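Progress against Task 2.4 (sequence-to-structure conversion) is shown through the following example record, which the project officer requested during the mid-term review.
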Amino acid sequence: MQGILLADKPAGWTSFDVVNYVRKMVAAVEGKKPKNTKVGHTGTLDPLATGLLVLLIGKEYTRRAGEFSKLDKTYAVTMKLGETSTTADDEGEKTKVSDRQPTEAEIQAALAKFTGEIMQTPPAFSAMKINGQRAYKLARAGKPVELAARPVTIYKTELTDYEYPFVKFSSEVSSGTYIRSLVEDLGQELKTGAYMSALRRTKVGQFAIEAAVKAENIDSADLVKLVLKAGV
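Structure tokens generated for the chain above:
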């Protein structure tokens, strides 16, 4: 079996959980052991996040993982104002910063400021490597994490809802952009602090969430017809 499978990852699952779940099905269909079956993904989603995972099935496609991982991405984001988080999302330890309630105009201005090519520092709790070690492992061990800022592009950001303390917006970004870092930067700009309370990936390159199947609903009986090849 060779091709692409679009999966909608549920909250609480890791990206590897989805890959492992699908790999077992592919192996069963092909009559192989899972360890001999090639399945990979093209961009990690945190366990907290939901949405589109582009899965690559078979050697012909998994060897192109680098190509697919460079595709632009679109997210639906919810950030909570007034607090920061050690992990920049809802899973970390929270610290109260401010009760200030920005106006919608102030939020629009902040979103506009972080549009275009910007310099962004990845979050300490990320999969970036420092001297061969994952940053999140160093952070969890209480060791200092120093990551250099690098250029990313925020193509378009649109405010979709604001009811203090929650701000919802959609953001179309280049590969390598960390939405958690974007939210932290917005919190600093607004002088309120902020962390990402929810995240859903809705698009990867030309692939959209509307074409995806909920990961937990993927069935081995339907697997062959769910795998895409056309137009890739």
